[in-house]
Write a structure and sequence with these properties.
- The chain has one domain.
- It is globular.
- It is mainly α.
- Helix 1 packs antiparallel against helix 2.
- The longest helix is centred in the first third of the chain and has 14 residues.
- It is built from 5 helices and no strands.
Length: 112
């Protein structure tokens, strides 16, 4: 499971995008795209783009992953996750995720 904790601490194992990818479910891809559009007040997300095996494992990634500031920062600093960074608690890059998903912080702390 450890590798299925994303750089930010979110649990990829329970992520609908990963589940849709693993199960190859267009129905779950459509539901996920719709939910994310509402959740993030985003423009239309093509359901076909909902493909990801997990942030830190080999395989396909959601299009946003290549430009994800959190993932880019973690990789640039040579860390596995934000939990390895001494500045995690005050970091403005990951603050939005941690504010809205307190389980992400707990996941990172459990790993260290």
């Amino acid at each position: 499971m450890e590798k299925l904790i994303a750089c930010c601490g979110l649990n990829c194992e329970t992520c609908d995008a990963r589940i849709a990818t693993v199960k190859n479910s267009d129905e779950l891809r459509k539901a996920t795209a719709e939910a994310w559009q509402k959740m993030f007040n985003a423009p239309e997300i093509p359901y076909q783009s909902i493909n990801c095996t997990g942030c830190r494992v080999e395989g396909v990634k959601f299009a946003h992953c290549d430009t994800c500031e959190i993932r880019v920062c973690v990789n640039k600093k040579g860390y596995e996750t934000c939990g390895d960074c001494p500045d995690m608690e005050t970091c403005q890059i990951v603050a939005f995720v941690h504010k809205n998903a307190p389980d992400a912080v707990a996941n990172l702390k459990r790993m260290n």
